[in-house]
Amino acid sequence: MSKGVGLDIGTMNIVSARVSGKKEIAYRRLRDLFIDLPTSAKKMLKLGSVSYIENADTLLVLGDEALEVANMFGREGRRPLKAGIVAPDEIDSLTVLGHMVRDVLGPPSHEGEHCYFSIPAAPVDANMDVVYHKGVFTRIVQECGYTPHPSNEAMAIVFSETAKEGFSGIGISFGSGMTNIALSINTIEGFSFSVARGGDWIDQGAARSVGSTASKICAIKEKGVDLLAPKNRDEEAISFYYKALIEHALDNIAQQFVLKGGHLSLNRPIPIVVGGGTSLAGGFMDFFKQVFETKKKRFPIQISEIRQASDPFYAVSKGLLVLAQQEYDEN
Amino acid sequence: MIVLLKCEVPQGVQLTTLNISMKYGDIIECPKRVYDFNRELQNLCGMGHISARPKAPVSTPISAPPSSPSPTEPSAPSLDLDLLANKLLEKLSGVLSVDAIATAVAQKLPQGGVAGSNMARPQISEEPLTFIPSQILTEDTKVSSQPLEDFVLEDDGMEETLKALRKALRKG
In this structure, is residue B21 part of a structural domain? Predict the structure, then answer.
């Protein structure tokens, strides 16, 4: 059996990755959402074959099924993570996250199996406690029987996608809660940071602009939007906020490079590799390149290429899996 | 410049080049020039085993000028600072608005409270105290079944990526 596991802990999904065959990776995904119900709903959940956990005097439905149940009861699903980190105002979030991680990881293949899990970098535009988030997941992964290794989310994209460049490049993970960015030179992190804007920010901004709700905008987005050719006002608003998000990320890369990376010697152009669920929108890469062209002249880093990760949704978990595997001897 | 290195992994880290072993949460100070030329530290940092951040400069109290100049020091010519400031503001006001100048000056003013020198305490934690519960997973809960989505994707590049990473880390 393969050794080592990568775990991507995102605001929208938790994904684990393990090597399952010579050229195969087994992924396991769970939507990061839950809803609480009174114990009286147990019979109904059983009839509907909905999985749940019994916690004290409440039933907790997790994952995609929580979304269906929430719609059924006309309620909003609850999120244990908000803006990329453990939601401080959700009293059940630790219990739920513990179960989610245990389910997604499964039992370790051996005692203390290495598990690299993603953590966001501290945001440059918001005051958030990343330390607590890291501590909570280190504890959970340890309690699941693994040796925990917190690892930067955007660096994971670099480890997954830039082997041919000697692991030099800029990794950008466009997530739901935030956008994580890291610059790597030959496997070494030059700098990393996050911006507290992501898919949720686009939904909320676009919803405000057109008098809609964030969940409706999210549904339009997930159904498929061509950012380069929006068809109506809702799609125009989505496209507008995508552009603002990309501009914000690129401006901050330039700023952070000047502030933190001035001493870094980049002797050749490096690629930008983009991943994350928010980058799955139609035409995203062409849109990104178009926005970059407007910034290119004053961008302080020479860029060789802008490309999407081979599998944008799983790039982070795959990069973390590579890191976990290198903990073991080659044979 | 000093870099603060913090051990981020529960099993601890051995810094062989510095002959130091660190436990989880330990912080040591390291001159930046040592960090810049030490591949081991940079590799460990890249893998997330340790984190590095520049030590924040510590503001020190401004010492009051001596009441009388010492005999060896040449006496400084007396300056009317208010007059100088007024002249400077007069010149700048042609270019910048008074509000902009006031904002810029306010940003440069020292914030209240002067920290003492931390030279006597070489190992300090700059992170706020963070409480993490000792146990998060409980056995009290009953799980009906797991609502998971499992699938397998082919990946041709995984082995090559791993080989390249091992090679790069050995080189480092």
Answer: yes
